[in-house]
Amino acid sequence: MLTKCFTVCIGLQMLKLRLLNGVLIFLIVVTANANRKFAIASAGVPHYTLSPNHRYGVTVPHYEDYHEDPDSKNELLDLSTSRVLTTIHQTYPAYDRNLNHHGMAEPRWARDSSILIWEVPGKWFPDSYVVVRLKNGKVLWQRDLLKLAQDEILEHTRQAAPSHFQAAKEHNRGNGSAYPEGFSVDVEVVEPIDFPLKVRIALTSNPKDIQGLTSLDSYLFGELDSAGDFKIRRFRIGPYKSAHIKWIVDRRSPGE
Fold first, then answer.
1. Does the bond joining 196 to the residue before it have cis omega, within 30 degrees of 0?
2. Would you give the DSSP letter of residue 54?
3. Statement to judge: residues 26 and 81 lie in one domain
């Protein structure tokens, strides 16, 4: 009889422990979700970031919170579930206000909400230019179009005008990491926002048109397909009136 009672007591104690563990796990999950929702609410999802179907949006942190949260980021959310689909890959996030030479985000969406173009304006060129491909509530891929544009046009310009490229690079030495090899590179996706995306890339070594500096300009047209692959359609040495480099249109292209 005592053995039976002891067994029952042990069983009740184990059941109690399981219930307590279950409650603890539940509280941890609820707390984590609450913290996540609070973080999302704190960052905010501005109306201008919403997709046409209002299913997706992007968090934009408040600049006042920067010192408390230096790891602030822009996150793409599924608003129907508050689930984070991806963090937008960029050097500096967009904030809720324009900063010195770092603007607020200017997102553009495809009509069917399947493509997000995330642009953060800078001084001579975007600070961020990212393309995100979505389907059925999932991110298929993300491309840093600014980095891709820089790599492609720098290599083609170096091959087409090697001596001018090297001279311009030397003149612009020390400009900082935002200027790849000392050059300003602009990128834009022109309408319509549908695959293949039409990409325009422009390069200049002298955005201020300063006398005495080596002036080298080039431009490249390409396409980004639905798989995220980039194809070059045209490359030329010479100035191009791009979204940010609008005023460099009359300069004589250097011969090689």
1. yes
2. S
3. no
Cβ atoms within 10 Å of 191's Cβ, excluding its own: 8
With the CA atoms of 11, 12, 18 and 23 taken in that order, what torsion angle do they form, in degrees rounded to the nearest 10?
A: 170
CA dihedral 226, 127, 77, 25 (to 10 degrees): 120
Tokens of 247: 């005023």
Question: The pTM is what?
Answer: 0.78
Residues 6+ apart with CB under 8 A from 107: 48, 49, 58, 116, 117, 118, 119
CA-CA distances (angstroms) from residue 53 to 49, 114, 115, 132, 137? 12, 10, 12, 16, 12
SS3 for 94?
coil
By residue range, what is the domain housing residue 95? 44-143
Residue where the block lists tokens 């293949």: 196
Closest CA to 127 of 92, 96, 152: 92
Determine, yes or no, domain membership for 255: no
Region 9-31: mean pLDDT is 50
Mean pLDDT of the chain: 82
Q: Give me the amino acid identity at 13.
A: Q
Please tell me the distance from the alpha carbon of residue 123 to that of residue 83, in angstroms, as a whole number.
33
Instruction: Name residues whose C-beta falls within 8 Å of residue 256's C-beta, 6 or more positions apart in sequence.
Output: 160, 161, 162, 163, 164, 237
Q: Which residue has the higher pLDDT, 189 or 243?
A: 189
d(Cα 154, Cα 94) in Å, to the nearest integer?
26
Reading the block at residue 167, the tokens are 């001279």
Does one domain contain both 133 and 113?
yes
